[in-house]
Amino acid sequence: MALITKKPRGTEDVLPRDSYRWQFLEDIFRKEAKTYGYREIRTPVFEHTELFERGVGDTTDVVQKEMYTFTTKGGDSITLRPEGTAGAARALLEHGLFNDPLPIKNYYLTSCYRYEKPQAGRMREFHQFGMECYGTNNPAADAEMITAAKAIFDRLQIRDLRLEINSIGCPACRAEYHKALKEYFSAYRDELCDDCRDRLERNPMRLLDCKVAHDHQIAEGAPTVLDYLCDECREHFDGVKAYLDANGVAYTVNPKIVRGLDYYTKTVFEFISGDIGAQSTVCGGGRYDGLLEELGGNAMPALGFALGIERLLMLLEAQGVRIPEPETCGIFIASMGDKAHRAASALTTALRSAGIQAEFDVVGRGLRAQMKYADKLNAKYSVVLGDNEIEQGSAKLKNMRTGEQHDISLDIDAFIEEFVRLDIDTLLTPVLEEADGAITE
Ligand code: ATP
Ligand code: MG
Question: Ligand 1: which residue has its CA nearest to atom 4?
Answer without folding.
Answer: 260
